[in-house]
């Protein structure tokens, strides 16, 4: 714990003007972001007697070791900068609303030539009209099914649409009259877009005029004795009225408003939001947050408004926003909302009438959501705490391991050897921290050497970040005696913004790269979460005594002695410790053993998912993959120009040069590669165009980087970490 007086700035140094401030911890991570009308007055509140601070505020200021600030012109600018920094740094002590699900929306893709009606989740896209959110996807499908007989808009996927256009036959919905079948040109693109616009108007609440128009057409058809058409129009009117009944009228004056209610206790708060459009409740959502700082109801409302309307693709600000308490001060928030909408926004607390009655309904929903959340979490928290305590007792740790990292090696009969690193914090998976490795130092199957290499590379990166912040108290450099390199071969930081590309590991598993550069050659930490910056309290390896010994030896070689290591063997679920002849056997009913099993199984699943992707990529590889500097875009251009690899192989250098973007040297390299040989010469980084001299850097540039981007599980863009389930063929893929 730090003494706040050790980093307290002098009062005269702090400006008496609006601004945003950041507290940082010993690792230079931003742990809290706040805004203030007067920075001097606000920061002075944090540096009073610790006994007078709220417990959570006291924890924050004693965790921090420095504070810095940025002056802005107005409070509105401070509000905007605070929100952007909270999104960027993800500070642990700021209020962050979370939810256990992604709410579905009814979306109309008006950005396409033939707009499509569909269910969408996740981030909003430009050019798409959204309605909702809804509590369940089936509610959207029921509504759409009723409306398609009146507004037969396209609902099929792109593949189905193109296949129908190719065959000249519409899908089933086209035959039964629930799609206007623009795929087979029954209507033009302009007519279909008008139909989609009418659908959007109806969903937006402009229902009266459309119903009156249908009723008039029904009457005219009856007068002209076209009874079949009149009957169809009657059924259409009935379908529209049935769809309207699914969202009851709550406000008689066709109000567009969002109602936000908060239910809170000393530790947590729940927020419920009702979206009212055209006087009807069109959507509902809810969030829950831990109150990690001393905060008022008005401040909770302010954070909810930031999260609701802050994103570029976030919810549109309605004409009226009703809240249980106003932020203090309210003027900057009011101005910010007005700027987001482009016109005036009424932000107020309803006092009486229908709006107050509806607010009470929203408040009851918030209270029920908080009770439900606490009921679920109470048991969960107790179980996880007991599991961590059991692990600490069994392994003889001084405290519960709040951060656990688990490593697993995966291969297919010795090919495509990869490793995974998964992270559990407070007993829960932290998927944004997952990492993957490709074994670089040797070929073939050797789980022990692979584990040594992976642990060495992971914690060399950690030492690099630690050395970057100047935390060496004894003057010893990281990795001394083992090479311990943390930068590229030229001593510059790596393009990924972390510690840099590592040198190749020698045959014995030790490093043979350049020595550690001084701190001046490393880039300054900016407070963003780094790839390998956070050390765990416990390292778990998938395996028995040999794997544990390899991991422990790697940490010893790096001079790390404050991280515990254990291994979990699958055969009898035994826990192995370094240097121990006998394993630790936890009871089968132990929550600690169950947590270790979940961590180990998750590491195994993540490793296999990466190994499968690499295997599939190897199977799909072709002769053009051996051409240095030839990326996917130019490969596709070549195939498109010549039609096939066979025709490309028969082409001359001059003919290949006719393809846009292909120069003579590249054409010669392509010809040589297709002839079965690749011309000798330096490798070229396809991302930067730079010549790469170190072969380990060549591996990194073609997809052999130590880590993957957070939230990806197999290298495919947008693939979630959770993709891929454990395979029953684990023995084969080991």
UniProtKB/TrEMBL annotation:
Q: Where is the composition biased (Acidic residues)?
A: 696-708
* Main subcellular localisation: cytoplasm
Carries keyword DNA repair? yes
| InterPro entries documented for this protein | GIY-YIG_endonuc, GIY-YIG_endonuc_sf, GIY-YIG_UvrC_Cho, Hlx-hairpin-Hlx_DNA-bd_motif, RuvA_2-like, UVR_dom, UVR_dom_sf, UvrABC_protein_C
Name the Pfam families on file.
GIY-YIG, HHH_5, UVR, UvrC_RNaseH, UvrC_RNaseH_dom
Keyword Hydrolase listed: yes
Taxonomically, the superkingdom here is Bacteria
Region spans: Disordered? 468-530, 696-734
Q: Where is the UvrC family homology region profile domain?
A: 259-474
Give an example GO molecular function.
hydrolase activity
UniProtKB keywords: Cytoplasm, DNA damage, DNA excision, DNA repair, Excision nuclease, Hydrolase, SOS response
User: Which compartments does it reside in?
Assistant: Cytoplasm
Which parts of the sequence belong to the GIY-YIG domain?
Answer: 16-95
Domain UVR positions: 208-243
| Subunit note | Interacts with UvrB in an incision complex.
Family classification: Belongs to the UvrC family.
Among PANTHER family, the record links this protein to: UVRABC SYSTEM PROTEIN C, UVRC/OXIDOREDUCTASE
Q: What does this protein do?
A: The UvrABC repair system catalyzes the recognition and processing of DNA lesions. UvrC both incises the 5' and 3' sides of the lesion. The N-terminal half is responsible for the 3' incision and the C-terminal half is responsible for the 5' incision.
| UniProt protein name | UvrABC system protein C
The source organism is Streptomyces incanus
């Amino acid at each position: 714990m730090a003494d706040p007086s050790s980093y307290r700035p002098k009062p005269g140094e702090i400006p008496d003007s609006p601004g945003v401030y950041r507290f940082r911890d010993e690792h230079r991570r931003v742990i809290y972001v706040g805004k203030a009308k007067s920075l001097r007055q606000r920061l002075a509140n944090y540096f009073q007697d610790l006994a007078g601070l709220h417990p959570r505020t006291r924890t924050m200021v004693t965790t921090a070791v420095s504070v810095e600030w940025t002056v802005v012109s107005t409070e509105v600018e401070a509000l905007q900068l605070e929100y952007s920094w909270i999104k960027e740094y993800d500070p642990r002590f700021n209020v962050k609303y979370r939810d256990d699900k992604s709410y579905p929306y009814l979306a109309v893709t008006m950005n396409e030539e033939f707009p499509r009606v569909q269910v969408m989740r996740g981030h909003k896209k430009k050019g798409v009209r959204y309605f909702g959110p809804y509590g369940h996807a089936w509610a959207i499908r029921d509504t759409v099914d009723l409306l398609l007989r009146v507004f037969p808009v396209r609902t099929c996927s792109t593949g189905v649409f193109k296949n129908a256009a190719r065959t000249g036959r519409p899908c089933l919905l086209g035959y039964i009259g629930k799609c206007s079948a623009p795929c087979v040109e029954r209507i033009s693109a302009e007519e279909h877009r008008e139909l989609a616009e009418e659908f959007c108007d109806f969903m937006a609440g402009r229902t009266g005029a459309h119903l009156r128009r249908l009723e008039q057409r029904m009457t005219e058809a009856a007068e002209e004795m076209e009874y079949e058409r009149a009957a169809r129009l009657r059924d259409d009117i009935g379908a529209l009225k049935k769809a309207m009944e699914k969202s009851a009228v709550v406000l008689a004056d066709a109000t567009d408003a969002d109602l936000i209610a908060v239910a809170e206790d000393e530790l947590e708060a729940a927020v419920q939001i009702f979206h009212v459009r055209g006087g009807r409740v069109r959507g509902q959502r809810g969030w829950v947050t831990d109150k990690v700082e001393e905060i008022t109801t008005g401040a909770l409302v302010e954070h909810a408004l930031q999260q609701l309307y802050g994103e570029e693709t976030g919810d549109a600000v309605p004409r009226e926003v009703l809240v249980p308490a106003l932020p203090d001060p309210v003027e900057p928030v009011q101005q910010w909302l007005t700027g987001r909408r482009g016109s005036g926004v009424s932000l107020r607390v309803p006092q009486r009438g229908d709006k107050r009655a509806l607010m009470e309904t929203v408040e009851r929903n918030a209270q029920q959501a908080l009770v439900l959340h606490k009921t679920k979490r109470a048991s969960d928290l107790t179980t996880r705490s007991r599991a961590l305590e059991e692990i600490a007792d069994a392994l003889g740790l001084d405290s519960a391991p709040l951060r656990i990292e688990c490593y697993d090696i995966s291969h297919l009969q010795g090919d495509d050897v990869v490793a995974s690193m998964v992270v559990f914090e407070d007993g829960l998976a932290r998927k944004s921290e997952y990492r993957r490795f490709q074994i670089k130092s040797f070929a073939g199957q050797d789980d022990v050497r692979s584990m040594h290499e992976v642990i060495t590379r992971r914690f060399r990166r950690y030492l690099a970040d630690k050395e970057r912040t100047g935390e060496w108290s004894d003057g010893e450099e990281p990795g001394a005696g083992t090479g311990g390199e943390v930068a590229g071969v030229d001593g510059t930081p790596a393009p990924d913004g972390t510690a840099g590309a590592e040198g190749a590991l020698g045959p014995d598993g030790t490093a043979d790269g350049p020595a550690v550069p001084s701190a001046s050659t490393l880039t300054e930490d900016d407070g963003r979460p780094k790839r390998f910056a956070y050390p765990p309290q416990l390292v778990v390896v998938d395996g028995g005594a040999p794997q544990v010994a390899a991991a422990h030896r790697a940490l010893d070689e790096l001079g790390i002695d404050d991280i515990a290591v254990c291994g979990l063997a699958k055969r009898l679920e035994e826990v192995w410790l370094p240097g121990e002849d006998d394993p630790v056997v936890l009871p089968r009913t132990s929550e600690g053993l169950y947590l270790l099993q979940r961590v180990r199984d998750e590491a195994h699943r993540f490793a296999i998912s990466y190994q499968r992707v690499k295997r599939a990529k190897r199977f799909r590889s072709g002769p053009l993959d051996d051409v240095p500097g030839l990326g996917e875009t130019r490969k596709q251009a070549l195939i498109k120009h010549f039609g096939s690899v066979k025709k490309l192989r028969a082409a001359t250098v001059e003919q290949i040069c006719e393809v846009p973007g292909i120069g003579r040297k590249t054409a010669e390299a392509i010809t040589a590669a297709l002839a079965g040989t690749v011309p000798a010469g330096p490798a070229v980084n396809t991302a930067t165009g730079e010549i790469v001299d170190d072969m380990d850097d060549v591996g990194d540039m073609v997809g052999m980087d130590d880590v993957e981007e957070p939230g990806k599980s197999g290298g495919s863009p947008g693939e979630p970490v959770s993709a891929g389930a454990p395979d029953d063929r684990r023995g084969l893929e080991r």
